[in-house]
């Protein structure tokens, strides 16, 4: 690539990540160079090799020799970043389908697949090759039905997945990840797996070399989650354990992992206090734990168990989401004339003046004040012109309005830090 010198473009190839290689007709351009890049795939591989080389030269070279681990210079693990193939939809891809503002579903794309909803029938063929974010029209209903094809993220997945259990939603997910101090390459334990909503959020954070051990005692849920992780392309980051972490028999309970080997534990269990002592064993000193419980009684028992197991810095939180939408609205300026006299006001005025007249002082001032409030004709009505009808000015204004409902309460979240092991 050389943008400084003028050249005659003979052939140019663009990588998936929009890096362009231009083959020139310069006489000194070696044959090797001319042959070097003939396809997008080849260029993609070159981008990966170049990224690896750059990581080795610029980053790893400054590390002490014993820390120069080539595993950390493998851009093929970050294909989303170095070769963002997923910008267009391919067979086998998971696509989140936005049917309406508050209805999201999903589909795995198949060559001959069909997706149907109340808006119509959509052929997967119409999805393949389209960039994520595209709007597609139904094949029936004269194409009136449409939906949007979104690229999956843990947040969208939580809103679209098939619920097999209660799940942890985006707001709580974000706080759990934040309060557990999760970072790439960490080892994390989770129980139970449930519908795998929280697992996906953890996996994105601990990629590319991290490991999630997720424990679920319901065999069907464990198998379904394992299968889903595989289909969603994250199975290399997660091991699903079919195990009762609160089992009464000590040897069968807890997490079958070496002591002090885990960076964070997340519990979403009906009786988390039974799992807390096991978590304390596998957590590294000063590592973090979070427990998610819908009832405050569960939280109280969990905090007691945490104290007993040597955890400190306990904090219980409840998060609520108040969304606002910012929009331009059209409004009519209010009428300039005074407001008309309503029956209700008359009655009120009458009652008040009667009570004023009946009182000891009885000077009727109140009734006078009220009747002063409106200027009316004999019949007590305001004429249209006086009300300003027809003279209203329509204006536009950008406003921020809160949504009528505030989402919550989903659960209490208790966070704590593991003590130092004796
Ligand atoms: C509320 S769900 C977890 C949802 C999950 N956090 C999500 O976001 O999708 C709780 C799960 O814990 C599992 N579970 C309950 N007690 C368990 C135990 N003692 N050991 C392992 N799993 C357990 C249940 O089968 C259920 O699937």
Q: Would you give an account of this structure?
A:
A seven-stranded mixed beta sheet has the order 11-10-9-12-13-17-14, with helices on both faces. Strands 4-3-8-7 form a four-stranded antiparallel beta sheet, with helices on one face. It has a two-stranded antiparallel ribbon with strand order 1-2. α7 links the parallel β10 and β11. The chain has 422 residues and is of the alpha/beta class. It is 29% helix and 24% strand. It is built from twelve helices and 17 strands. Mean pLDDT is 81; it is low at 1-9 and 360-388. α8 (272-282) runs parallel beside α9 and α10 runs antiparallel to α11 (365-372). The protein has three domains: 9-81, no CATH class; 88-152, Vcp-like ATPase, Chain A, domain 2 (Roll), CATH 3.10.330.20; 162-321 and 410-417, 3-Layer(aba) Sandwich (Rossmann fold). It is globular and about 90 Å long. The site of S-adenosylmethionine has 22 residues, from α6 and β10.
Précis, in short:
This protein is α/β, with parallel strands linked by helices and 422 residues long.
Name the features.
422 residues; alpha/beta; Vcp-like ATPase, Chain A, domain 2; seven-stranded mixed β-sheet; four-stranded antiparallel β-sheet; 17 strands; disordered N terminus; binds S-adenosylmethionine; TRM61_C; methyltransferase
